[in-house]
Amino acid sequence: MIYILLILILCLILCSIRQINEFERGILFQFGKFKRIMNPGWRLVLPIIQSYSKVDIRTKAVDVPEQDAITKDNVSIRINAVIYYKVFDAAKAVIAVEHFQYAVSQLAQTTMRNAVGAVSLDELLTERDKISSEICKIIDEATDPWGIKVENVELKDVKLPEEMQRVIAKVAEAEREKQAVITKSVGEKESANNLAEAAKIMSQTPGALHLRTLATLNDVSSDQSNTIIFAIPIEVLNAFGQNNMQKVAEKIIDKKDK
Question: What are the DSSP calls for 94-113, one per residue?
């Protein structure tokens, strides 16, 4: 009889052994009331009078489903994010809230829509880090009573309507054209200043203009396909007119007679 009793006690002990892994914490209930937190290792949980729950305390990455939102300037967008959190108090995570994973996900969705609605589209596109930090702070404060620490929130993607994408592309193109025109005008101004400085130097140096002309002709003549045009003052052409030639001939004859 004693052996049978010992065997029953041994079987009861073996059936009562529960293993808590290093990345888990156990929540022990006795007669339905919270008793204590069980640390990693083998722990005894007596049948009938005791029960327990395991809580994973590792950092979790939860993908927040894509949400429809409207920005402060009434632009409809679709946005999704990822939230990183961990349980720092296993007892609160089990007792204070039902299915804390689902609760955190729902809270993240609501907070994300509210945060997007408080900023304009330009702020959302240019200040993602700031908005992510604000969302993280709001969620962390709300989940602190649940024993959950929100470590980070990252906005993954912001999808705009096709019409808005075309508008933004046109704005970017206009900005690039504006910058190109400004750059070109600055270059022309510098070129004009350099030309004015060169003209000033050549005007003050005798023979500089002739040397520059000869150098230009030499460069042009290296390519036989080019056509060279000489700009001759109209006074020079008039000197070769019929009346002028006759006057020149008469002057030469008068000089010979004398």
Answer: HHTSSSHHHHHHHHHHHHHH
For the whole model, what pTM was predicted? Answer: 0.63
Sorted by sequence, the CB contacts under 8 Å of residue 128 that are 6+ apart come out as: 155
Report whether pLDDT(148) > 90: yes
Tell me the domains of the chain and their CATH numbers. 2-56 (no CATH), 60-165 (3.30.479.30)
> Do residues 66 and 78 touch, judged by C-beta distance below 8 A?
yes
CA dist., res. 119 & res. 113, Å (int):
11
Tokens, residue 29:
């209930």
Element counts in the chain: helices (H) and strands (E): 9, 8
Average pLDDT, the chain: 82
Distance CA 230, CA 197 (A): 25
Point out the least confidently predicted range of 6-10, 36-40, 152-156. Answer: 6-10
C-alpha 36 chain-centroid distance: 47
